[in-house]
Write a sequence for this structure.
């Protein structure tokens, strides 16, 4: 049985600014992400990658065209629908964005608590399990300042995955990492995604990640210029 794609984008245009400063950032972008797929979105700086990611992540409003996320149209969707959808997403950013005053496990617990009504003990249990999966079972009570760059990024991966998201959106997750840590983080994302059926859309211009992708989409000047299927 074929399932609906997690993400289906049709004729997406996007503009920034207004008046004379108005500038089109995306032109007629089309993209389909099948459930469980691992897609890399690449392209030069300023080509529109982050804009696509923030639109799919319900972090900015869709102006023109259609973005369907888990079957729901985002254009014109109300705030409640967008909040509900956002709770089913996992975000990983270039800078790990951990709270420096919270320990690794407290940071990951915050990833559980985006969903209302999860009891503290259960959240802590899930967070400990997620940190175990990323190989940090012995670092639960460390503050970010006492973790390496790769370890911090793995905490961010655990935080993104702990709520069992349907879709992980990752923006340059390996930019701050050395070669080995970058490969570890990507392999981890891919493995956990495969085990849980999570779909991943990863933005990067890091060539080291490309051989791990199921699909590589390339954006240039706001347009998709190539789609390479590797499955
Ligand atoms: N908030 C904004 N206001 C005005 N213009 C913006 C804004 N955000 C992005 N842009 C413009 O939209 C275009 C696409 O930007 P975007 O950040 O999506 O590119 P990118 O491919 O992610 O770049 P990078 O790899 O450098 O992060 C660029 O020309 C950028 O200057």
């Amino acid at each position: 049985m074929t399932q609906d794609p997690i993400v289906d984008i049709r004729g997406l245009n996007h503009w920034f600014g207004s008046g004379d400063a108005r500038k089109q950032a995306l032109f007629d972008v089309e993209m389909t992400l099948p459930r469980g797929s691992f897609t890399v979105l690449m392209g030069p700086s300023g080509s529109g990658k982050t804009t696509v990611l923030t639109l799919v992540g319900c972090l900015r409003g869709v102006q023109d065209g259609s973005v369907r996320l888990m079957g729901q149209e985002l254009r014109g969707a109300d705030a409640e629908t967008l909040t509900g959808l956002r709770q089913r997403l996992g975000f990983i950013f270039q800078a790990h964005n951990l709270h420096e005053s919270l320990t690794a496990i407290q940071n990951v617990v915050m990833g559980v608590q985006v969903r209302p009504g999860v009891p503290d003990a259960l959240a802590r249990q899930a967070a400990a399990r997620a940190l175990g999966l990323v190989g940090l079972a012995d670092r639960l009570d460390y503050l970010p300042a006492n973790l390496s760059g790769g370890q911090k990024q793995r905490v961010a991966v655990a935080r993104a995955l702990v709520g069992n998201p349907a879709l992980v959106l990752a923006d340059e997750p390996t930019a701050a990492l050395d070669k080995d840590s970058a490969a570890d983080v990507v392999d981890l994302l891919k493995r956990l995604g495969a085990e849980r059926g999570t779909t991943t859309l990863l933005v990067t211009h890091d060539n080291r990640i490309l051989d791990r992708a199921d699909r590589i989409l390339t954006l240039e000047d706001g347009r998709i210029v190539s789609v390479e299927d590797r499955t």
Observations:
- The helical segments are 49-56, 79-86, 104-112, 120-133, 149-161, 179-196.
- Residues 16-17, 25, 43, 45-51 surround adenosine-5'-triphosphate (CB under 6 Å).
